[in-house]
Design brief:
Elements lengths: L6 E10 L2 E11 L4 E5 L6 H8 L7 E6 L2 E3 L4 H7 L1 E4 L11 H6 L5 E2 L3 E2 L1 H15 L14 H12 L6 E5 L7 H16 L3 E5 L3 H7 L2 E6 L2 E6 L6 H9 L19 E10 L3 E9 L3 E6 L5 H9 L6 E6 L2 E3 L4 H6 L2 E4 L3 H5 L6 H6 L7 E2 L2 E2 L1 H14 L16 H14 L4 E5 L7 H16 L3 E5 L3 H7 L2 E6 L2 E7 L5 H8 L3
Parallel strand pairs: 3-10, 3-11, 6-9, 9-10, 15-22, 15-23, 18-21, 21-22
Antiparallel strand pairs: 1-2, 1-4, 4-5, 7-8, 11-12, 13-14, 13-16, 16-17, 19-20, 23-24
Helix pairs in contact: 4-5
Length: about 500
């Protein structure tokens, strides 16, 4: 008897040493359905997707495709079944072209030996025409915008005759226009009778897109919700196991008698940003808003010394300088938390302790010997203070959820004594509970005198955190607003200003 579901997950359990990541999870996907999976970081969403895509094998339980029991023992098997996966973290080779990235490992052959270049171009051209005709097949991936990289990743995911597409946080680095374009692609995919498993912490997106919502908490199914009747508050309550409590704390920051701790004067870098001028005050949270590609990240990296501006001056605590290397910025107690957390923020093969302590090891050394007892005591204090969920200090940081990795990176710079923090998309891919904790932490740090720059594509985050907001577009500052009088509308007007 043919099943009414295209895919079924029945009683799946997955155990790792000392941890049960999934416990008896069941999931039903209908043809032509957008089925969202929501939950806090650590709820088991990624583990479940890795099982469906064949990256992990379940400890127990069964999978069914079109009513037939199956084993998915590799991503290749998943692809043959018609399952595509677009992971949260970009999985592209920057030095290769768009065409090479899309077809990597799946080049069409003539006579099973020779590359069929004509067929290559046809496949890629057809895909790009469906997804975004502005992306050229011969463009090197490193030269693409963040949004176009996401779309190349999507093209790779639907290269095969994909019937089920898994999207993990697909809008985390997209602007509102780019999100609308992605939603059009998803809707077109669904209208063709295909199914989407959609994972996002942006609950308004989940509510808008979904036909069904499944909530995971601590590795268990806890609810199946109808987006037509379920509110965002309902979703959060099911995710965290209690009624959602909203805090809308607007800081009462006064600029009177506050000293300037950082001045950026006439900063320019070819093809990235031009004539940037702004001041950052002691204890201030300064938001930098703008579209993806507006030059925000490039500016942050130039301030920190990842790159060097072509012209301009930087003043830190009144002293004129240019940071030609991050090490120089760190010596001036200036820290940067990058947007690409896994690629640029953490050392995945090192432990939580090693990741936090690296820039500060000299504080715990005497005669080149590390005082491990003293170090571990301090790390314990930061784990407790920032509420980092970790089994032990010796756990590899790669095993932590995104929110806990971010707290560990913040601990690193607090331990080093940083007085100026630049945070690029600080809550990207982080669940609502962890996001609220990080927001509270940033407000507390600012109240204690730290000065913070927050770069974010999320309007709500910029408006709720900032004391003052700078808006960038096309590498220029288009305006400045006090957060007390700012709105999404006037930020967007400046963000689109030419």
């Amino acid at each position: 008897m043919k099943s009414s579901y295209i895919f079924e997950v029945k009683n799946i359990t997955k155990e790792f040493p000392g941890v049960r990541a999934l416990d008896n999870v069941t999931l039903y996907i209908r043809p032509g359905e957008i089925h969202s999976i929501i939950g806090e970081n650590g709820a088991g969403k990624s583990t479940l997707m890795n099982i469906i895509y064949g990256i992990l094998q379940p400890t127990s339980g069964e999978l069914f495709f079109n009513g037939e029991k199956i084993t998915i023992d590799s991503p290749k098997k998943a692809q043959k079944l018609g399952i595509g996966f677009m992971p949260q973290e970009l999985n592209l080779v920057p030095q290769l072209s768009v065409e090479e990235n899309i077809l990597l490992g799946h080049y069409p052959l003539r006579r099973k030996v020779f590359l069929d270049k004509k067929e290559q171009r046809r496949i890629v051209s057809d895909l790009l025409a469906r997804i975004d005709p502005h992306i050229k097949a011969d463009t090197i991936v490193r030269d693409l915008s963040a949004a176009h990289k996401q779309l190349v990743q999507l093209a790779r995911a639907i290269l095969f005759d994909t019937k089920i597409l898994i999207l993990d946080e697909p809008t985390s680095s997209l602007t509102s226009d780019e999100i609308e374009h992605l939603f059009d692609i998803i809707e077109s995919f669904r209208k063709a009778g295909n199914s989407v498993i959609y994972i996002s912490h942006k609950l308004n997106e989940v509510q808008r897109l979904s036909d069904t919502i499944t909530v995971l908490r601590d590795g268990h199914n806890v609810a199946t919700l109808d987006p037509k009747t379920a509110t965002v508050e309902d979703m959060i309550s099911n995710m965290i196991g209690r009624k959602a409590e909203y805090k809308n704390e607007k800081r009462d920051y006064s600029y009177k008698d506050k000293k300037v701790v950082l001045s950026v004067k006439d900063f320019s870098r070819k093809k990235e940003f031009q004539k940037i001028n702004f001041d950052l005050y002691e204890g201030e949270i300064l938001g930098i808003a703008g579209l993806v590609g507006s030059g925000r990240t490039e500016l942050a990296k130039a301030i920190y010394g990842y790159t060097v501006p072509d012209s301009g001056t930087l003043l830190v605590e009144g002293k004129k300088t240019i940071n030609k290397h991050p090490q120089e910025a760190i010596k001036k107690y200036l820290a940067y938390v990058p947007e690409e957390r896994r690629q640029e923020g953490i050392f995945p093969i090192l432990t939580v302790t090693e990741n936090i302590a690296l820039p500060s090891l000299n504080k715990f050394c005497k005669y080149q010997i590390i005082n491990k007892k003293s170090l571990r005591k301090v790390i314990d204090e930061y784990i407790s203070k920032l509420k980092i969920k970790v089994q032990s200090q010796d756990e590899k940081i790669a095993h932590l959820s995104g929110g806990n990795q971010q707290k560990a990176i913040l601990s690193r710079w607090l331990l080093s004594g940083s007085r100026i923090l630049i945070l690029d998309e600080p809550t990207r891919g982080i669940d609502v509970n962890a996001k609220a904790e990080i927001h509270d932490l940033l407000r507390t740090l600012a109240a204690s005198g730290l000065s913070i720059i927050v770069i974010s594509s999320e309007m709500e985050e910029i408006l709720s955190l900032s004391d003052r907001i700078i808006v960038m577009n096309e590498g220029e500052i288009k305006g400045e607003l006090l957060a007390s009088s700012a709105s999404q509308e006037n930020i967007l007007k400046l963000a689109f200003k030419h």
